[in-house]
Write a structure and sequence with these properties.
With about 550 residues, chain A is α+β, with helices and mostly antiparallel strands. Chain A has 16 helices and twelve strands. The two termini of chain A are about 55 Å apart. By secondary structure, chain B is an all-alpha fold. The chains are: A alpha+beta (about 550), B mainly alpha (about 375).
Chain lengths: ~550, ~375
């Protein structure tokens, strides 16, 4: 993948390069010199003294002194040897290189000699050094005031694998990798249409990370594209190491616990979102694409919902939503009922709870908080530990400690059950960041429940809901389509509607093209009316 | 996109519904039964009709001046100072109303669920909740109401449906009630239960199609009216008129008397009350929002957000003024009867004067 002509390569270097020039020479607008030695020293001055920077001297066509410059660990040596050095040393057979006039040298090299499609000549030192840093090679020749930049970049990258965090049973097995070029090719492979657009920019004064904004021309609302572009352009930071960095700069509400931009490592998910009228942002070096605008319902939807039968997946989606709500309110409801309204629960159960809690010295709130916090610690420890020990720890931690805590009278068995259900519930949410928000919000809810009972839980939930209702992601209300009241869109909210009925793209994104299928899809999929295999009737042509 | 003109017909109806349905529902059957014994459902219906007259005036006024806030057009219609006095009175009324809502719900909570918690705390929590949320713009205001309206309607309907197995149809007969004379006064009392519809005044200038405001008014009144009649009929048919008179919050007792099938929960009153927090919150939120929004309009402030915590101490003191629950109920009935002047008579007078003086707002 080549980035030689990508936007940004001609951008002037910033002030850091000025300070690298103590003698006051401005390398920014400097052209290379005809003198080869001078050119080399100028480039070396900008790049400094690094051992992986190779300056290889040779003779073009056996007579013109030249150097090949590159960073050895970012370049493809086979390309350098076979398509640059070999033709340059021998020269084209059909041209008499010995009697070549000096002013035709460049033309001959570019047009007749090099076996490489991505090469161009350039004078500016800053452009040359930028390209060298990117992994390209530069050939400078004595007596020419231009140097040749040739694409030789080769970065080792891992293979395309199944996404680790978003696995599906039915659906594509491809996940993004770190290289931006490969990621875009994965998207293009699924969207072979000229409407798919990629706009690129460089963010990060030091890392110069390539950021690509993808959208569908003619579907995505231009307002959203403009807003995303504006927010990305405004970012000034020295390094962008992951798309998560960008997320924090472009999201709407920075203090909210809820994620306002979705991330995914599945190309098919990105494509589905692009086709709904959203914008995707990819960063070179990050296997996670950002999708904006995001609404809350996206966090409990998966790709799989749309590949399996709709009735069943609707039920699964509902159960996921239940899990999400569970992970937020279950422990606080338990605390509230146990400490304030035990009369609510059936008598037999109340007796069981009271029996289990008989030896526990703490009030229910403290008990639940202690177990909850230790659960959070265990979970964090399990994630951080190497995989070989992680499994063992989770069993020891959860089973043994849980059992021992009950035996020691720290917690009642029912508390452990409740916390276990809550924890499992938070795992059922496909989006880690949304689950995290709800997981941590349940702590204030437990405290409210311990102080005010059910009334406190409701007050807490109202506060959270009001916050959600006031959130927006790139101008789109966060609880869309439920809350601006779009009944069309609600087909895909709690349950999933049949694909042939979801004729319109989500209207809260205000897409330019509103429909995604033909007008009479409903009738078209009604295949049962044609009995092609019915037994033959004498007077009927059906059923050959 | 104009941020301030996006409220749809559905949202406007939802705002009105969830504003009207509030803490007053808990005592609603009591008021109805006091007025007309077994004729309680009928009285509720007539009260709804009277309230609808007020809402009708208000909606017509709002549609006549689709761009101006209520404070602004009352100044246009009856002159600057009279209009300001009218505005100030309605602000005061809504400030008092929100403190009373907070106080009454605080009383309910302290009596029914949190017996050891000081009243001040529950009232303050409710007021804080409203203050926190009312700093947002009017779109968020509409979103919040739209979101909660199903959570208000469904539990109420559920309670009604579940209580039907204990209902005796004889209890609501005769339909006219035994005391015909009490009905006119009862209509007035009952119509005060619908006073929340005043919020339409604030909503119409923010609607994207103000000319369709009447549709949302009709829907809102219809839905709340049906809900109220159902609740009153259910309560009276379960307890009978005489017994209902002895209950402090008959609707809460109704929830206590019903049980879920399969005995999942032993009792429903605490759950009902918990869910009811949302209903009370939305009413309180509307009153609170109306108060600060109108103050900001009256003084021509650009933003109402800074007022939200400023008026909190005043409302809290107002809420704590009534000595006891009985005193609170007396204050409540006086205030809400006075409120009829503001919610029915005042808009009616404004509408008539506007028609006579041929004042009309610029259409958008």
């Amino acid at each position: 993948m080549s980035f030689s002509t990508w936007a940004g390569s001609n951008q002037p270097n910033d002030s850091d390069n000025l300070s690298a020039n103590p003698n006051g020479k401005n390398s920014e607008d400097m052209d290379i010199s005809v003198n080869l030695e001078e050119t080399i020293s100028e480039i070396k001055q900008v790049l400094g003294d690094s051992d992986d920077f190779i300056v290889f001297g040779f003779h073009v066509f056996g007579q013109h002194p030249a150097v090949l410059l590159y960073f050895s660990d970012m370049t493809d040596h086979a390309v350098i040897n076979n398509t640059i050095l070999k033709p340059l040393k021998y020269g084209p057979r059909h041209i008499d290189v010995n009697n070549l006039p000096h002013d035709a040298l460049m033309q001959t090299i570019m047009k007749d000699t090099l076996y490489h499609s991505e090469g161009y000549s350039e004078r500016k030192i800053s452009v040359l050094t930028d390209n060298l840093l990117r992994g390209q090679s530069v050939v400078a020749i004595e007596g020419l005031d231009e140097a040749i930049i040739i694409d030789t970049r080769q970065i080792t990258q891992r293979a395309i694998e199944q996404p680790a965090t978003e696995q599906v049973i039915r659906g594509a097995r491809e996940g993004f990798i770190e290289s931006l070029g490969t990621n875009i090719s994965l998207l293009r492979y699924r969207l072979q249409t000229p409407d798919f657009r990629v706009k690129s920019m460089e963010i990060g004064t030091k890392t110069k990370s390539k950021v690509a904004m993808c959208y569908m021309d003619g579907i995505t609302n231009p307002g959203i594209i403009k807003e995303v572009q504006k927010r990305l352009d405004a970012i000034e930071i020295d390094a962008v190491l992951d798309s998560g960095y960008l997320e924090q700069f472009i999201e709407d509400n920075h203090w909210s616990p809820f994620p306002q931009i979705q991330y995914t490592e599945r190309p098919d998910k990105v494509v589905a979102n692009l086709l709904e009228g959203r914008v995707a942002i990819l960063v070179d070096g990050s296997p996670l694409a950002l999708i904006a605008p995001t609404v809350f319902s996206q966090f409990y939807q998966t790709v799989e919902d749309y590949t399996e039968r709709f009735v069943l997946m609707s039920a699964i989606r509902l159960s996921r939503l239940v899990a999400l709500v569970f992970s937020l309110v279950f422990p606080s409801l338990y605390v509230a009922i146990i400490s304030f309204n035990p009369e609510l629960i059936p008598t037999e159960f109340a007796v069981a709870v009271a029996g289990g809690r008989a030896g526990v010295p703490f009030p229910a709130m403290i008990e639940v908080l202690v177990i909850e916090i230790s659960m959070e610690v265990l979970r964090e420890a399990t994630i951080r530990l190497p995989q070989q020990v992680g499994g063992a720890l989770s069993i020891v931690g959860v089973l043994v400690i849980g059992q021992a805590a009950v035996a020691a009278g720290f917690a009642s068995p029912i508390t452990v059950v409740i916390i276990a259900l809550t924890t499992i519930g938070s795992f059922a949410t496909p989006a880690y960041n949304a689950a995290l928000a709800l997981r941590l919000l349940r702590f204030p809810l437990i405290i409210l429940a311990g102080i005010f009972g059910l009334y406190g839980v409701m007050v807490g939930i109202i506060l959270i809901t009001n916050h959600l209702l006031s959130l927006k992601s790139f101008g789109v209300p966060y609880i869309s389509p439920f809350v601006p009241g779009n009944f069309q869109g609600m087909r895909d909210l709690l349950t999933r509607g049949p694909l042939w009925k979801m004729k319109n793209r989500p209207s809260f994104l205000h897409p330019i093209s509103k429909t995604r299928m033909g007008d009479h899809m409903k009738e078209q999929v009604d295949h049962s009316s044609s009995h092609i295999m019915d037994p033959v009737h004498p007077n009927d042509e059906k059923g050959r | 996109m104009n941020e301030q003109r996006q409220i749809t017909v559905t949202q406007a109806a939802a705002v009105t519904i969830s504003t009207i349905v509030g803490v007053s529902v808990l005592a609603l059957p009591l008021a109805a039964v006091k007025a007309a014994d077994a004729g309680a459902p009928l009285v509720t219906f007539l009260g709804m009709l009277l309230a609808f007259v007020g809402l009708f005036f208000m909606t017509r006024l709002g549609m006549r001046f689709p761009n101006d806030s209520y404070i602004e057009y009352s100044e246009i219609i009856i002159g600057k100072w009279l209009g300001r006095i009218g505005g100030l009175l309605s602000i005061a009324f809504f400030a008092v109303l929100s403190s009373l809502v907070a106080r009454e719900f605080g009383e309910v909570v302290v009596t029914a669920v949190l017996k050891n918690t000081p009243l001040e705390v529950t009232v303050l929590v409710m007021l804080l909740l409203a203050a926190f949320s009312s700093r947002r713009n009017i779109m968020t205001f509409a979103y919040i109401h739209l979101f909660y309206s199903p959570f208000i309607l469904i539990p109420a309907l559920l309670i009604v449906a579940l209580s039907l197995k204990n209902a005796e149809i004889v209890n609501v007969l005769p339909v006219m009630g035994n005391e015909i004379r009490g009905i006119p006064a009862g209509i007035i009392t009952l119509s005060t239960m619908f006073q929340g519809y005043f919020i339409m005044m604030m909503v119409i200038p923010a609607m994207c199609k103000p000319e369709r405001a009447m549709r949302s008014s009709i829907w809102a009144m219809l839905i709340t009216g049906v809900l109220y009649i159902l609740i009153v009929s259910a309560t009276v048919s379960v307890f009978g008129a005489e017994e209902t008179k002895k209950l402090l919050w008959p609707t809460l007792e109704l929830a206590k008397a019903t049980s879920l099938p399969a005995n999942v929960l032993e009792r429903l009153d605490a759950v009902f009350l918990a869910v009811w927090v949302t209903a009370v919150f939305t009413s309180l939120f509307s009153c609170y929002y109306f108060t600060i929004y109108s103050i900001s309009k009256l003084f021509r402030l650009a933003d109402h957000g800074m007022l939200s915590f400023f008026i909190l101490p005043f409302l809290f003191v107002l809420a704590m003024l009534p000595q006891s629950l009985i005193h609170l109920n007396e204050v409540n009935s006086v205030i809400s009867k006075f409120g009829l002047l503001i919610t029915i008579v005042y808009p009616g007078v404004l509408l008539i004067i506007a028609k006579l003086r041929k004042k009309r707002g610029k259409s958008k």
